[in-house]
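Re: [help] complex structure
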Amino acid sequence: MRFSARPASWVTTFGDRDWRNGWAFAAPGLLTLAIVMGFPLVYAALISFSSLTLLKPALTPFVGFANFGRVMGDPLFWSAVWLTVKYSVVTVAGEFVIGLGVAMMLNRTFTMKPFYFAVLTIPMAMSPVSVALIWRMLLQPNLGIANHVMETLGLPRIDWLGNADLALWTMAAIDIWQQTSFVVLILAAGLAALPRDPYEAAEVDGASALQQFWYITLPMLRPVAAIAVIIQLINEFRTYDLPYILTKGGPGNATEVLSFFAYRRAFLGLSLNEGAAAAFVLLIIVLALTVLFFWSLERRR
Amino acid sequence: MTLMRSLGLAFAGATLLASLPAHAAGITLRALMEDVPETQIIEKMLPAFEKETGIKVEFEKIGYGDMHDKLVAQLVSPESYYNVLEVDFLWAGEFPAAGWLEDLTPYVAKSNFDLKPFIPSMLELLGQTKDALPLIPMYNYSMGLIYRTDLLEDPKLRAAFKAKTGRELAAPTTLEDYVAIATFIKANGNDLVGAAMQAQRGDPNAMEFSNYLFSAGGAYLDANRKVVLDSPEGLKALKLYAENVQKGAQQGALSATLDDTMRLMCAGKAFSMVTYWWMLPQLDDKEKCPAVAGKLALSVMPGGHGESGGWGWGIPKNTSDESKQAAWTFIQWVQSQKTSVARALEGHAPVRSDVYTDEAVLKKYPFYKTALDVVASGKSFPIFAYSAQYEDVLGAQLSLAAGGQAKPEDALKAAADGLTQLLNK
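Output below.
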């Protein structure tokens, strides 16, 4: 009688044992997510609206959007946003193009495949900090091996990280070197799962290899590729380790990406509230991109 | 018999433990330390301290760039993992302002620890006021000029320099002299650069530039703590700094840190470096740096004043009382005259004047006489709650000017405005 005012389906669902069991099984996972992700996120949101700094560690008084206003009123913030967008687009595009090429080659390789995959996972298994330190040594302009090789080949020495026009792209190249393996593994798995029938039909119809790639492989690979691209896009937008180790945001502000900007505000400026506000702007951008990407994918399906 | 022997051993052990200070038993002190020679010198002596007091000390050594954040994370937590702190003078405004450090005045009073031998400027640098003593000086890192004497005596270079300038090639006495010699050597020195520079944005270039500023007669603040950075002297310093990065320094100077300059100098590929005076024994070492050993000299920064800096020992508030007592025991020991002299004989940069005049120290390192001049003539970077942030603000502007992305006038004004804003924050 008590449930009579509610829709019948709700009553049925609530009373359904499968429904209750489902929630019971999901509850531990949901609870863990709420603790490890929900709580920090809510707390960070609170900090971003508060007056909390490392010198005055108190949440109150809350200051509304003042921290967001201060962060977004800083010209360096917009410079950091623009650098982050450029960096992310270039690295993800590079990783995807190279990754797809390598994955297709691996797809046609039948010998020593495990060996190739093992080699490919090496950069991925390394921490970005180690990668940055290794590359910092290799690219050291005066004593590093990269310029030594350049000189041996009769080429001029290059100031890889000290030149403001080059530093961001050097960082992007290092990132591509490390992250491409991940894209390769995902795309290789996707390619291996594609059905053979469309290719056989295309061959009967006389389609060239390029036509098969363009009209069969790419469309069928789209869902897997989309996942690879979106994961990498999120990764690249959050890039912090490389600028921290390689350049500290310099020369000038040439490599100060958004996450490094947020770090500077929080830990050098001691303003955790402004750092949290900057981090939330980053989160909103990444969320918007993710939603837009999946929406576009769904529309094309 | 076995029982009697066991009882005897247990009694002897208990007697030994009872003879130690009550706080000593079972305490392990943990410190986050910068990975520099000074840390290694102390680390070698830790077994002696443990034997003497029963207190174990563990050093976690990392690069300077990572220290501040790692310490702050512990200091804002309910209980700090590090229970004795190595604190840079640049944080000597921030840490006490945030209420993270114990005031050491009661500890000094209770143990009759003598502060008189400590160089007064070092105590001031590390935040001593009439009312509080947040840190005990550990070592100083005043900066001076290390240069190659063999290159100044090279006949070809001397002749070329005289032909170009009409002057004799000699150790520089002014900032203009220094930059002129550095740019000359880079242009004429056959794969040599005039200056190994640490112009990476942040602490490296902020510290390095400060030497140029003080040598040019400039300052960050006047006696009333009003910002006076944007001055003719400041502009002269910045223009000369940018000129040296562009024409006198190594390729990649804008991304170089202390380690890079050290390697370059050690490899014999640079004429000079503006650096911490205690780098001299590290470079003047036949085994580590055969290319330059025996060919180096130290001087006060040309112009008369370099950047003065130092590290201090502190005790975090968020640790147990037992740990605090053990930390204080360690600080007294490591900064005592006996330990300081022993450290100096291994290359320590003293903060006590009685160590600089110690006969054994001067016999082993005659250049400590010059080192005392470097320390005495040093001036300080502005110390306040946001010093670390100001290094970054200043560093970004220096990097822009030195990289040719901003006019020195604009960069200097932005750096001065940034300092005013942070002082008013």
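Chain A touches chain B through 28 residues (CB under 8 Å).
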